[in-house]
Amino acid sequence: MADVILISDMRVHIVDLPTRAVHSHGSGDVSSIHSIVLELVTDSGITGWGEASPWPVFTGTIEANAAALHTYYRPHVVGANALETNKIIAHAEQLVVGCPEARAALESALLDIVGKSKDMSVSELVGGRHRHSIPLSFSVANPNFDEDLQSVDELYEDGVRIFKLKTGFADHTFDLMRLEALRKRYGTELDLRVDYNTGMQPFEAIRRLRDIERFDLTFIEQPVARQELSTMAAIASALDTPLMADESVFNARDAMAAVTLRAADIFSLKIMKSGGIRAALDVAAIANAAGIAVYGGCMFESGVAHAAGAHLCAVLPELSLGCEFYMANYYLREDILAEPFPVHKGFVHVPDGPGLGISVDEDKLARYRVELLQ
Questions:
Q1: Which element (helix H / strand E) includes 97?
Q2: For residues 95-130, b (16+ Cβ closer than 10 Å) or e, as one string?
């Protein structure tokens, strides 16, 4: 087996993927998925795929991540040995401050190549598969709640039982009304969670969150701004419902700070925040040592990034709260994968096959591409 697989070309596809509805959040609205699909071509004929999915109000911008990949990473990636994944990623970290999504895309594409060359899945490469499927959570985020109720009904018929309401983008009574409607409609058959995406002010948080605890929620996610760790700790201490940190925990350093203050009971793991699967595993290790649960989160992604996230979740024995890789199947009008991202009866099934276990439909990629950097 070859010890050297040289990267011969690097293509940065900027895509705009249409969605089925607007999704509202405490930090802003999303009406399409603007993402970057990375294609690495090698001299062995193997192609690796990755995705960078930034959100300007959360992690970063398309423009910055495209520049990181095309302008700064390219001279050091093209001509490199794809099997030296750690070396390439370590160098990338030195080239550009921030842009964790670009590193996540680069790592995914490299691991896809390595896995294909060794006939191993990405989850086997990064620790070994602990599970083959993960319960799926869908985000209830349409400002038109009647349309959202129809979506919930359809997903319920498909076997989905976990629903996370995006809260804080309208007034408190709207959030209470939606929770009450779902509990009245489905009783305790639904596993309900809420996510404020930093939409609350610290002074109001505890009082209002006590209002919603009566709906028997599995967790409350990130009510206040990323930097409000002391407020997060006060909320976690005051409430009976577990508190999840998302925007407050990007990387291992953030995780250490949150553990020190006991600012959350749960961490949301996202390869786009951490800069890839291995960096997210560092966050998970800190959480596990501190007795903090973990959850499989995502940004606004296609099936390419979903596949990488699913492989992350597959290797974590401590992951117990499911994942939210629903966008390829239930939010996008059309994904860019050749075969549908594997979701069946309310579970994400970790893709089988070498590498990421997915193939990109290049006709669909071309259809939704708005710019190609090569």
A1: none
A2: ebeebbbbbbbbbbbbbbbbbbbeeebbbbbbbeee
Look at residue 2 in the predicted model and tell me its pLDDT.
Answer: 62
Distance CA 135, CA 133 (A): 7
Contact 239, 220 (CB under 8 A): yes
Which residues touch 209 (CB under 8 Å, ≥6 apart)? 200, 220, 223, 235, 239, 241
Which two three-digit tokens encode residue 330? 């239930």
Identify whether the C-beta of residue 356 lies closer than 8 Å to the C-beta of residue 37.
no
CA separation for the pair 176, 313 (Å, rounded): 31
In the predicted model, what is the mean pLDDT of residues 62-66? 97
Tens of pLDDT, residue by residue over 78-92, are 999 999 999 999 999
Q: Which domains does the chain have, with CATH numbers?
A: 7-119+361-373 (3.30.390.10), 124-349 (3.20.20.120)
The predicted model gives 318-332 an average pLDDT of: 96
Helix (H, G, I), strand (E, B) or coil at 314: helix
pLDDT tens-place string over residues 163-222: 999 999 999 999 999 999 999 999 999 999 999 999 999 999 999 999 999 999 999 999
Active site residues: 166, 324
